[in-house]
Amino acid sequence: MKKRHLLFLALAGLLALAGCGTSQSSGEAITAVGSSALQPLVEAAAEQYQTDHVGVFINVQGGGTGTGLSQIQQGAVEIGNSDLFAEEKAGINAKKLVDHRVAVVGITPIANKAVGVKNLTVVQLRRLFTGEITNWKQVGGKDLPVVVVNRAQGSGTRATFERWVLGDRQPMPAQEQDSTGMVRSIVASTPGAVSYVAFSYVDSSVRALALSGVKPTDQNVTTNDWPIWSYEHMYTKGQPHGLTKQFLAYIQSAKTQQRLVSKMGYIPITAMKVTRDAKGNVIDKQGEKSNGSN
Amino acid sequence: MDPIKAAMLKRSRSAKLEQRGKLISLFCISLIVIVVAAIFFFVASRGLATFFDNKVNLWSFLSKSVWSPAVNDAHGNPQVGALPMIVGSFGVTFLSAVVATPFAVGAAIFMTEISPKMGKKILQPVIELLVGIPSVVYGFIGLSVVVPAIRHVFGGTGFGILAGTFVLFVMILPTVTSMTVDALNAVPRYYREASLALGGTRWQTISRVVLRAAMPGILTGVVFGMARAFGEALAVQMVIGNAALLPHNLISPASTLTSVLTSGIGNTVMGSLENNALWSLALLLLLMSLAFNLVIRWIGKKGEMKR
Amino acid sequence: MNAKQKDRLATGVLYTIAVLIVLILASLLGYILVQGLPHVSWHFLTSPAKAFEAGGGIGIQLFNSFYLLLLAMLISVPISLGAGIYLAEYAKANRLTDIIRTAIEILSSLPSVVVGLFGFLVFVLQFHFGFSILSGALALTMFNLPLLTRNIEDSLRQVDFAQREAGLALGLSRWETVIHVVIPEALPGIITGMILGAGRVFGEAAALIYTAGQSAPALDFTDWNPLNIASPLNIFRPAETLAVHIWKINSEGIQPDAAAVSAGASAVLILAVLLFNVLARFLGQRLYKKMTAE
Fold first, then answer.
1. Chain C contact for B140, CB < 8 A?
2. What residue ranges are annotated as transmembrane (chain C) (predicted)?
3. Burial letters for C145-177: b for 16+ Cβ neighbours within 10 Å, e otherwise?
4. C293: confidence class by pLDDT, cuts 50, 70, 90
5. Residue C117: pLDDT band by 50, 70, 90 thresholds?
6. In this structure, is the dihedral angle defined by the CA atoms of residues C80, C86, C88 and C94, taken in order, positive or negative?
7. C37 contacts chain B (CB < 8 A)
8. Which of A14-18, A155-159, B285-289, C106-110 has the highest mean pLDDT?
9. Prediction pTM value
10. Contact yes or no for C243/C205 (Cβ under 8 A)
11. Most buried in the list A92, A264, B143, B159, measured by CB within 10 Å?
């Protein structure tokens, strides 16, 4: 029994030590929580930042856009990562939050390679997801039933896709997956499957579909010729200061944007030739304003 | 007072230790109860908000089949119909329990009655190892082996209740088996000896005496398995297809309470209707496991009286 | 069919079932190992993970898994031991005990994501433990408690009542009888329960995503001072475990070799569980021999 007492003591000691340890040893620490699509980028940037600046600690966690926005709204964390404008999310008071756009993500429809279709119009794509088209031969493909795979309700990718493809139409109830990797492997292995993923997840196992001849490329996103894209946001509650401010500036700096952001498959903010606001209005960077669809 | 009397009246070290021991164990059990109460309160307070704050009708929550909390229907009411998930959860749970129980009971009998040596040496480690395989891995094997196999044999997409049943069957097998083993081991030896002495064969002894005596314990094991199946999220989510639709058959995509809960919870904002509706699903999950437990308690009591 | 034939038939069926179960496990193991082992190397086991390049390892995740398991067990075993003793030895057969038992059973059937979110709101935010090993260990404890308590209670109950009577007759108090007579006798059962619990803890992902976090900051394995944030022993650092890593790679991984890393990590996870099983069994037997007169 003695041994167990000793173990308890050791554990208690460890707890006590670590308890005072956190307050002193970490010079400065911040936490960023939220979007799992943005997590890899922030993580990589944090890693680089920490090698350049000794003694700071940036803790990056996923958990989803909803978690990121609710935690930043409550002030529980320093940065909330989101795939969506805070204005688009129910239950969030966007006025208290400050938006920092750090990257752009293009989203493309993908299909199983055996469907025999490479190009669709937006209307055809919309009808696939609303359930009006049930067989690939209706859009010039093989005689295969359409299997729609959606992302989970509330996911940022799904919200973006539905906003720019479905407009105000409702998608038909279908399979839902809560992660991009699952969506891709299901589309790759299920005949007739169609779904949508961010550009960086497209690989040889699935086929990315062009829309009315426009290919899903970074170039087409920067000019808004490919309309299905969204910003990646890092929200702070009020104006950032201290380490939070420096880290955000680091991510938004031209150097990080050009090297890290594009290397990881995101589109740098600096490369965009247009901007888009929360309502969907597209503004050419030259100042000419064109009307956003929907 | 003379020292002898004092020593007699003073509580002995042993008695103090006894008191302390009892206190420690009481403390531990109350800690668990407090944790459960806290979780229950936490889930209930959020889950009930759907009905009290967002004014969703309880009956339509249970009986409607459209799950789309972010969108209002023609009357302006949010569409939170949990019926597809309820059906899906019950479907996979019961089916996997139905498949797993014979296997588990058979394996347990093998381990306790037929060949305890081989049971201990081979089967027990095997079963413990099955517990150790993480649900993520089960899910991926399900996705890369079970789903294509079902697609090949039955057609369709392969996703659905059948695939979920297969995966859950393997996952709850260890739970049910090890609890059945415990139940069988708890049957006193003289029960078996009495039966054998009366000229019963081994199988007669097992089926008419041992199994009957262990029945409440076995049922508890089955319920524990079902509870695990009910609460399992990751693996089922990967193979069931996750479509909030009423399943037409065993191979059409369906969904469970946990799969919708797990996939949606990170994407919703605390306190919003979408989030509350998901917590209502969690509350439903809790209440169902409570109901299961009560049923089993009842069966257990009946079994005891008969014995 | 007479009783003898029935007996033989039943025996045959039981053997078949036993063989089938072993076959299921063998094929599962075979599948995982064949897919994963080719990717496992010393480098893979020791190097840190890469966020978006090929060639990442799982060294830190592996360490985190074991450390987290150790901590979770350190917290949950004493509590469930106490609770198990109470239920087996002291609890009266009344309504209150019934309620306690039901409460434990309900705790064991909670979906892990609910426990995870509860842990997130209580440990991470309320208690300010942050995304840390401690939060993770506490969340895992909540999982482990019902399973272990039940198991310990059952093991204690299985000890023959004569043993208790002997202890009491020797003038030991009830508590002393339990500690010195009943527990040593019940030890093999308790150890089995701990192995089962450990297996569940080792493979748990959903509860840890929100508590121990999904990032594994670089560790300095020369620094064993639990105060330092880079020390492996620090319990306030975020710690991605192997199971969480597999989940993350499969869901949002953008490494070109994500499938290989995930297969390799799964194989390592299984091997670790296997190793752990063997070790625990060996230690349990040694302990049993030491504590009883055998």
1. yes
2. 12-34, 66-87, 99-123, 129-148, 258-280
3. bbbbbbbbbbbbbebeeeebeebeeeebbbbbb
4. low
5. confident
6. negative
7. no
8. A155-159
9. 0.81
10. yes
11. B159
Alpha-carbon Rg for chain A, nearest whole angstrom, is: 22
Indicate the residue of A66, A90, A177 with minimum beta-carbon distance to B266: A66
pLDDT, average across residues B150-178:
87
Res B14: pLDDT: 75
- CA nearest to A40 within chain C: C51
As a whole number, the mean pLDDT across chain C is 82
Flag whether residue A76 sits within 8 Å of chain B, measured between CB atoms. Answer: no
> Six-digit token pair at C281?
């069994």
What pLDDT sits at residue A21? 41
C264-280 mean pLDDT? 82
Residue A24, pLDDT above cutoff 50:
no
CATH number of the domain at B83-306, out of 2.30.30.140, 1.10.3720.10, 3.40.190.10, 2.40.50.140? 1.10.3720.10
Q: Write the pLDDT tens digit of every residue in A126-156.
A: 999 998 999 999 998 899 889 899 888 878 8
pLDDT band at B97 (very low <50, low <70, confident <90, very high): very high
Residues in chain A, how many?
A: 294
Question: What span, in angstroms and rounded, lies between the C-alpha atoms of B173 and B176?
Answer: 5
Side-chain-facing half-sphere of A204: CA atoms under 13 Å: 1
A91 contacts B271? CB cut-off 8 A? yes
Smallest Cα distance from A63 to chain C, Å: 7
Backbone angles phi, psi at B67, to 5 degrees: -115, 100
Q: Which residues contact C258 (CB under 8 A, 6 or more apart)?
A: A181, C249, C250
b/e per residue, B156-175, with b = 16+ CB within 10 A? bbbbbbbbbbbbbbbbbbbb
Tokens found for residue C258: 């994500």
Q: How far apart are CA C110 and CA B36, in angstroms?
A: 10
Instruction: Provide the phi-psi class of A141: left if phi over 0, else alpha when psi is between -120 and 50, else beta.
Output: beta
Could you tell me if A87 and A278 are in contact, meaning their C-beta atoms sit under 8 angstroms apart? Answer: yes
Q: How wide is the angle at C-alpha A113 spanned by C-alphas A110 and A116, nearest 5°?
A: 100
Q: Does domain C40-292 have CATH number 1.10.3720.10?
A: yes
pLDDT-based confidence at residue A82 (cuts at 50, 70, 90): very high
Q: Which two tokens stand for residue A237?
A: 């509650």
pLDDT at residue C142 greater than cutoff 80:
yes
Give the burial string for C100-127 (b: 16+ CB within 10 Å, else e).
bbbbbbbbbbbbbbbbbbbbbebbbbee
The answer to ipTM > 0.90 is no
Neighbouring residues of B47: CB distance < 8 A, sequence distance ≥ 6 = B276, B279, B280, B281, B282, B283, B284
- Residue B243, strand partner residues: A175
Which of C104, C173, C208 to probe the B interface (max B CBs under 10 A)? C173
Structure tokens at A88: 């688009």
Number of other CB atoms surrounding residue A13 within 10 Å: 11
Structure tokens at B34: 């407090």
Predicted confidence (pLDDT) per residue in B183-220, tens digit: 888 888 888 889 889 988 888 888 888 888 888 888 87
Distance of residue A47 Cα from the nearest chain B Cα, in angstroms: 24
Query: How many CB atoms lie under 10 A from the CB of residue A254?
Result: 10
**Cα–Cα distance, B260 to B285 (Å, whole number):** 12
List chains touching A (3+ CB pairs under 8 A).
Answer: B, C
Residue A194: pLDDT over 90: yes
Domain boundaries, chain C: 40-292
pLDDT at A137: 92
DSSP 3-state of B174: helix
Residue B275 sits at the chain A interface (C-beta within 8 Å): yes
Domain spans of chain B? 1-53, 83-306
